Amino acid sequence: MILFLSAHPLHHIFFHRYSVKWAGLPGKTVYQELTERAQHDVFPLPPHSLLRPKDVLLQDLQEEYIQTIRTGHIWQSVIMPDGRPPPFIQGTLSRKDRRTFASAIQLTSRHAFTKWYSDHMRRGADDNNICPCSEPIPPSPPGSPRSDTSGFNHLMAEFLAAHSPPPSPRDNLPRHQRQRPRPRRQTFYNTIEHVLLTCPLHSSPRRHIFGARPSLDFIFGTFEGGSQLGAFQRTTNRLLWPLPPRPDPP
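RE: above sequence
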């Protein structure tokens, strides 16, 4: 109060006394009008809105949406508020699957089981963030249908014998000189972009569910994309749970 009065010479305060004994006197109404007029002159009140409180809140959200700088695929799942859930959210809800819906919300905010979340929110936790497609395919256990490949190997040997190119001078060199260095295997990380768009382990379900060329704009920006995301996650079981820990090196 003292700072307000001392900030400028024009700042001043009027004190009015009102007693309950004056109730019903002819000058009461005049006094109340003068008091309200003085309050509006000193502290003008905002104009009263004719909108309902719900409409006022929606208008504020729309103005905030326009003024916000939108980057990242989190904003692809959010359109200007109109009182209804965005198409992406409606698509995920259409599957009536609580787990995939919760995961879809996590993916839009990047608070999911991905490398980005581990690097920014769980530093030092030693989470496994290497996609399984970076690992070589383990050998099949003996006795399994995949381990019995004698017939396939025989057919492959006949095919190679019939279609192999003629021997090159390199074949006459000693074995240690003929061997070429193995190419270094590329490491792919467990990210949203890699799992949904490029991971070779899920090429077949990706093509069957999303089509030939999926994109994050389509997945997180449309009703169909939200529904297909849930189907892809249930089919591949990816981005629903954390990756299992990597085995210790020998």
